[in-house]
Each structure stands twice: as C-alpha cells, then as structure tokens.
Write a structure and sequence with these properties.
The chain is an alpha/beta fold. It has helices at 33-49, 91-102, 140-150, 185-188, 225-233, 244-247; strands at 9-13, 53-57, 73-75, 80-82, 108-110, 123-125, 130-134, 157-161, 173-177, 180-183, 197-200, 212-214, 217-221, 238-241, 258-260. The strands form 5 sheets. The protein has a 3-stranded mixed beta sheet with strand order 2-1-15, covered by helices on one side. The chain is globular.
Length: 264
C-alpha cells in the first residue's frame, strides 16, 4: 500500500464563526459560514466514503484559521511532527492538535526552535522523498529541523522554492499517484519535479492545482472544468467539492485535513 496516497485516517476541524477574521492575501470579502460548513460537510463525507476513519474536531473560536488543520502537523506512517506555523496568530493551533495525534501515534515530535517556522501546506510527501517549499511561512531553520526529525524514520527531505506571491508550495501542486504530480506551469517550469510525471493545470485554473489523492478518489475544487477533464482523461476518479468560501482565505482541498495511516 502506498503511504502517500492511501490512508486509514483523517483529521478535520469544523470552521469556527471567527473564520471571518481569517488571514488572506487579497481581501475578496468574508466567507459565508453556512456555505463553508456545507462544503466542509461534503468534504468530510467524501473522505468517509473511501472507508477511512475521519475524526472531525470541534471549532476553535480563538483561532480563526483553525479549519486549515494541515498546517499544524506532518503525519507519516512512523510518527507525526507538530509544526511551528509562520503566522504568529496560528502558533497555538499546533499545540491544540498535538494531543489528538498522541492518541493515535506511538511517536509524536515537534518543531521547537525559536527561529524555526514551518507549515504543512509547504510540504508535499511522495513515496521517494519529502519536498518542502521555502515560503513566507516556512523558513530554512524550520526545514533543517524537520529534516533532522524525519531522517531516523528513513525519509529524505529536499528543499525547493515556493513561487513568489504564492502562499504555500502545495497551493501550486498536489500528488495524483506515486509518480504523478498536478502542478501549475509556473511551478513545474522550475524543474523541481524532474523525474516525476507532471500534469499541468489549465491556464487560468491555477487554483485547481491544490487537490488531494485520498485512496481511490481525487478531490478537487469545483469550477475548473478543463483541469478536471485533464485529470479524468489521465484515468483518475474525480470528485469535485465546493471551495468558494475557503478560497477567500487562500484555502484548498489539502488544507482541510491531515491524512495518514498511523503505526502505534
């Protein structure tokens, strides 16, 4: 079983009413909480449809961005690493996630350096390596600390660079199978995916690059028909999920869950 695309567990968190105060690169208006919750319900139901155990945590009103749980941890088969988010308002989210991970994993470690910052949205795990994008939220110290933590578990880490003006590395890419990456052309043109098969999203549909492969399904945001058709043509089973409200806060499919198969 491929650990990078097949999972027995996922953790999500319901959006809080405080989400209207969430961080955003460009203000396109506040998200509609009811519509966001409806989209989130569809997302959780789709994960469960694959047979996975989905743990849905309650909202955290103190942390407006806490629905985006992926940034709080890196979950690997051997253990979990609690992140240290680069946005100061999100630092407490990682601490809130840690006890839930300890209940599922035999080993949970954490990024602790005062100068280390790293968010899960900058981390793409493949079967052969862990790609970590340097960004405004993830710095060299955080990447170096993570490399030291995952090395004893047999994982090799490679630092790459998130495109300028892009929030997270995975804003612009996602894993479709063990050898195939969906990417924007601005990212794939850098050569960071040499050795992989790459499917580029359609021009003007860059927001479709953030999908997730979860067991037999590819979950992608609704509204990007040319990219959807390209993924379908490549032989994948696609499920489109509404993402209009999360997108107002720079969020996508991967941001909304931690996906893993823990070894106790």
């Amino acid at each position: 079983m491929s650990f990078s695309i097949h999972f027995t567990h996922a953790i999500t968190r319901r959006p809080a009413a405080s989400i209207t105060r969430g961080l955003r690169a460009v203000d396109t208006g506040n998200p509609d909480l009811a519509l966001m919750q409806a989209h989130h319900d569809s997302y959780v139901a789709t994960l469960r449809e694959t047979g996975a155990r989905v743990i849905e945590l309650p909202p955290l009103e103190t942390y407006p961005d806490s629905v985006f749980v992926e940034d709080t941890a890196l979950c690997l088969p051997q253990g979990a690493v609690v992140m240290r988010p680069g946005a100061p308002s999100r630092l407490g989210e990682a601490a809130e996630m840690a006890p839930h991970l300890r209940a599922l994993y035999g080993e949970v470690v954490g990024i602790t350096g005062a100068e280390s910052f790293i968010e899960g949205g900058d981390i793409l795990v493949t079967e052969r390596e862990i790609l970590v994008g340097r960004s405004a939220r993830t710095n060299a110290a955080g990447i170096a600390e993570l490399a030291g933590l995952v090395a004893p578990w047999g994982h090799k880490l490679r630092e790459v660079h998130t495109p300028p003006g892009v929030l997270h590395f995975k804003t612009d890419c996602s894993l479709l199978d063990v050898d195939t990456i969906l990417s924007t052309t601005r990212l794939s043109a850098s050569g960071c995916f040499d050795g992989y098969r790459v499917i580029d999203v359609a021009e003007g549909e860059e927001a479709a690059a953030n999908t997730i492969r979860f067991n037999d399904l590819v979950l992608m945001p609704a509204g990007f028909p040319r990219t959807r058709d390209a993924i379908l043509a490549a032989g994948y089973t696609v499920r489109e999920i509404g993402n209009s409200e999360c997108a107002r806060l720079d969020g996508g499919m991967s941001c909304l869950s931690l996906r893993f198969t823990p070894r106790k």
